[in-house]
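Pasting as-is:
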Amino acid sequence: MEKQNLIFFLSSCLFLLLLVSEIQVVQCSSSHHHRGVYGFHPKKLFVFGDSYADTGNSPKTAISWNVPYGITFPGKPDGRYSNGRILTDFLAKYLGLKSPVPYTMRQNEPKLVKHGMNFAYGGTGVFNTPNGEPNMTTQIGFFQNLIDESVFKKSELESSLCLVTVSGNDYSAYLAEGGSNQGLPSFIASVVSQIAVNLKRIHDMGVKKVAVGALQPLGCIPEFTVSTSFQQCNETSNLSVKLHNTLLQQAVAKLNNESKDSGAFVILDLYDAFASVLNHTETDHVNFETPILKPCCLGNTSINDCGSVDAKGEKLYTVCDNPKATFFWDAAHPTQAGWQVVFLELKSKFDRK
């Protein structure tokens, strides 16, 4: 989102936000189990969403296939929007699975299909976005086709976990396409409503547990903090994000009330996980350099130029000396180290049943 559009977003959502309750994290009891997600122990992982989960589906023209992406892992660009591993990878490892094969690479890595599949595409959304990548409904359609083709059997789905991620591309697209200030609140409601439809559709296919990520604090990503030299988050923006998250919690609660499977739908609170790390630069796991909001890969003239070159092939960006001590990689995405500590925050609640 551009800065001007963000201001419109804030003003239209803030009043509505005051009318709804604060998002509350899904809480469970204190019973612990190894490698479980809210008491469930999946044998396969299926992933739907955008660049926060994409491990290689985006076309080779995407910025994630350019140097310096992937410099930490696997050592070269491989389609991940980071210098290394992302949320999908950490979740899969925790579950004792290999990271599920990207949908577009399924025929190249047939042995990885047994661990599930990743349908996420960078830049996509719940609805269509300008880059034309498959939206979430289309991604679920790919999954349905594979079930119909018996690539995945119904019996396998019952022991599977589905991860759904949304990082705000729908709202960027809405504003970029001239969406009105007055129409934003109802658009937010329509996005969350469609997410709920998607979650139910996945569960109805036979997937036992469906986890959906809350929207991260957009006001803290470098694209929105560059105006303050990466010194502080835009707290008004973060309040607006909570409107999405509050409506999402309400939708998930409704799905669970209507489901015959107890706790079939859960929220992964990326908002609180991000905020917890960003508010505590020094943690038990890593000591991030300050300012923590400054990205490692920084465009020379534009915050979004990581991985770009000019007509002569000269880099339009600089890369920090130590990505392991940096939370953000580029204008919107965490580094591998950033994702690691975010996942540790999420994991602390996973085994509660």
